[in-house]
Known about the structure:
The chain has 10 helices and 8 strands. The chain is an alpha+beta fold and about 260 residues long. The protein has 2 domains: about 1-135, Regulatory protein AraC (Jelly Rolls, Sandwich); about 150-255, Arc Repressor Mutant, subunit A (Orthogonal Bundle), CATH 1.10.10.60.
Amino acid sequence: MHAHFEQHVYHRHSHETYSFGVTETGAQSFSCRGGAHTSATGMVMAFNPEDPHDGHATDALGFTYRIVHIGPELVSGALADATGRKAGLPVFAAPVVDDAALAGALRALHAALLGDATALRRDELLTATIAGIVRRAATTPVAPAGGPSRAARIAGQARQVLHDRLRDDLTIDDLARATAASRFAVYRAFKSEYGLSPSDYQRQLRLRTARTLIAAGTPLGEAAASTGFADQSHLTRWFTRCFGMTPGAFRQASR
Length: 255
């Protein structure tokens, strides 16, 4: 994505991918991982998969930025050693990194993906950029000892129900029955594990599914109905708040 925003405000959301962005002009402010952050001109943003965040212009002048979303499997593949053995996925502790070299690499990758660079050149830039941002900005993930906690298991079970019953009008009691926990325990565990309430996560899951359908050519009204939205206008309203463009504009860009 390459965009300029002045008044648009991103609703709190996350991506299933790593997201690496560079602010070209102005400044954008957002909350992420319990803190407030600002990415000014030349700074890099690094979001882990499922990192909840929002976003808005810091002042009336707005901001321009480029952002690339890269699936975890591509990141893992780019970090594989000479034998093809894949490394563990990196974790980025700081969502804003002030690094001119990384900013330049991201701009070059983004331009190649949108321009007329050859496939080989795009792959080279992708691999080099991932390696560079991991080397300069990532931290080593630490696996929790003793396996997942009870709260993590409850959150994971509730998440699976949301995936399995995408179109259903679920209640918190439905999730409580499925996890054999109280409704309050489900809410607390889910919010702690994923940074979003179950209802926010459900909406985001529906939006991601609708986005895939729209990219495949599904009519907007049908995509809305298939993913549990009340109607096309309901889908459009939330799609714009979370992705920064209307479903129609996304469909056109996908073509």
